[in-house]
Amino acid sequence: MTKTILAIVPCYNEATSLPSLLGSLKQLRIPGYQLSIAVINDASADATASVAKAAGVTVLDLPVNLGIGGAMQTGFRYAQQQGFDFALQVDGDGQHPPSEIPKLLARQEETNANLVIGSRFLLHEGFQSSFMRRLGIQYFHWLNRIFTGNAIYDATSGFRLLDKKAIDKAAMVYPDEYPEPESLVLFARSGFKIAETAVVMQARTGGTSSISSAGSIYYLIKVTIAMFFSFIRHY
């Protein structure tokens, strides 16, 4: 029986990188799976919406900028309403090559995990981010291990596959800002199985990061507090 996947592409001013990304996604063929694509246009100021519509994929236009958490939750709610078996987060900046998607699916089949994370740091191949960001990612690895007991080496990775149970949870509640590390606590506290698999990422092909050098300290403090409150929250 063919399983359905919705590739959710959250976008804020990603018109430059979208044509190549969407072209690669549309060409991807995975035996046993049917892939659909939804671009979440997070009130972009550039031609993101028109570029995505020209590519012939589903486009959900947000009237105001909600940030990555709100954009992803919009995609999860759409996936839930449409009855997809899996939801796949693929960043719109081109860092997540569609050719790596079968690795996430293979890991889900192997482990039956509710959430599978594509990791840069299991084999250390491809784009590895800056030294300072790698330090921050190691910090979140340590923090996540304290809160959940899980050893997730790429806690900030947005290259993720969710099954139906995880889609239902994320559609109901999902962190609104810098959601990746905090959502690991949310899913673990909800009793979900989390797995990680090695993938090769690449440097962004367009757009700018939502985390500036000056904002890194705020990011660390904000996400640390958010992970703590997710840990003590009753789900």
UniProtKB/TrEMBL annotation:
Pfam families in the cross-refs: Glycos_transf_2 (PF00535)
Ranges where the Glycosyltransferase 2-like domain occurs: 8-168
Domain of life where this protein originates: Bacteria
The keyword Endoplasmic reticulum appears for this protein: no
Transmembrane feature ranges: 216-232
MF terms (GO), sorted A to Z: transferase activity
Keywords, alphabetical: Membrane, Transferase, Transmembrane, Transmembrane helix
Protein name per Swiss-Prot or TrEMBL: Glycosyltransferase family 2 protein
Organism: Filimonas effusa
Taxon lineage: Bacteria, Pseudomonadati, Bacteroidota, Chitinophagia, Chitinophagales
